[in-house]
């Protein structure tokens, strides 16, 4: 199981700067919302570096996301007038470490989603690398990878359509290509866990063969996207070891 791992780094970000809002925060409630946003964001970012923590039981995710969504979308569902008042900085998991900076709450949501997906992937890798790998561990790895795929799918379907992508490069984490590649990778690696379990339980060869073929197709689709991004941009890309092994 040691080949289930994700070598690309988690995304980094800086603290939220709200000094420029001093003149417009004219009520106690407004100050309270901004202070809570900064506090919950800082707590979430610090938690993301802890691979022993289970994202599903990290309450600050559910506490921060509704707050930042309020800056992206109004109660009526239209873009919020607050969408552009805060500046966010995020590095990319592929390529350069230079942060992309945008004054856009949707940009923040997309990057947080991408980082949560990477967090699940790295947690799966950490569990898979344990010496005494058990059936319960396999189930947890599978759950983490499927959840990560779901997070990337959510970002693709619900967030990126509202994102101004004109300043983003093809290899930026919030683009359709990268999010799709990550989603496919997670889906394929989750299926690898299922396939390993099927072999262990001595299921019918035709069932295992069909699952292996389907998994290979997903792996190739993901690998093709990664290679396209790598070949069309001047940066080094770290490919998942399992993607390389299983595409051959």
Short description:
The protein is mostly helical and 248 residues long.
SSE map:
Blueprint: H1 28-48, H2 59-72, E1 88-90, E2 100-102, H3 105-128, H4 135-159, H5 176-200, H6 205-231, H7 241-247
Antiparallel strand pairs: 1-2
Helix pairs in contact: 1-2, 2-3, 3-4, 4-5, 5-6, 6-7
What are its keywords?
248 residues, mainly alpha, two-stranded antiparallel ribbon, elongated
Structure characterization notes:
By secondary structure, the chain is mainly α. It has seven helices and two strands, in the order H-H-E-E-H-H-H-H-H. It has helices spanning 28-48, 59-72, 105-128, 135-159, 176-200, 205-231, 241-247, and strands at 88-90, 100-102. The protein has a two-stranded antiparallel sheet with strand order 1-2. Helix 4 (135-159) packs antiparallel against helix 5 (176-200). Residues 234-248 have low confidence and may be disordered.
């Amino acid at each position: 199981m040691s080949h289930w791992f994700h070598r690309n780094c988690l995304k980094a970000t800086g603290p939220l700067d709200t000094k420029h809002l001093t003149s417009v925060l004219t009520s106690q409630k407004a100050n309270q919302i901004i202070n809570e946003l900064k506090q919950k964001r800082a707590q979430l970012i610090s938690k993301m570096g802890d691979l022993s923590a289970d994202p599903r039981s990290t309450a600050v995710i559910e506490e921060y996301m509704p707050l930042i969504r309020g800056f992206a979308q109004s109660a009526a569902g239209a873009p919020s007038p607050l969408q552009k008042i805060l500046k966010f900085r995020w590095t990319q998991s592929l390529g350069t470490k230079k942060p992309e900076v945008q004054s856009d709450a949707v940009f923040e949501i997309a990057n947080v989603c991408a980082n949560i997906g990477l967090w699940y992937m790295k947690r799966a890798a950490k569990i898979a690398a344990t010496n005494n790998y058990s059936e319960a561990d396999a189930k947890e790895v599978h759950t983490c990878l499927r959840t990560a795929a779901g997070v990337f799918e959510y970002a693709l379907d619900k967030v990126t359509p509202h994102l101004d992508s004109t300043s983003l490069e093809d290899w930026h984490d919030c683009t359709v290509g990268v999010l799709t590649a990550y989603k496919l990778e997670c889906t394929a690696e989750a299926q690898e866990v299922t396939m390993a379990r099927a072999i262990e339980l001595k299921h019918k060869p035709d069932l295992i063969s069909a699952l292996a073929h389907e998994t290979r197709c997903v792996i190739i689709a993901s690998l093709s996207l990664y290679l396209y991004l790598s070949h069309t941009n001047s940066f080094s890309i770290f490919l998942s070891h399992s993607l390389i092994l299983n595409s051959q």
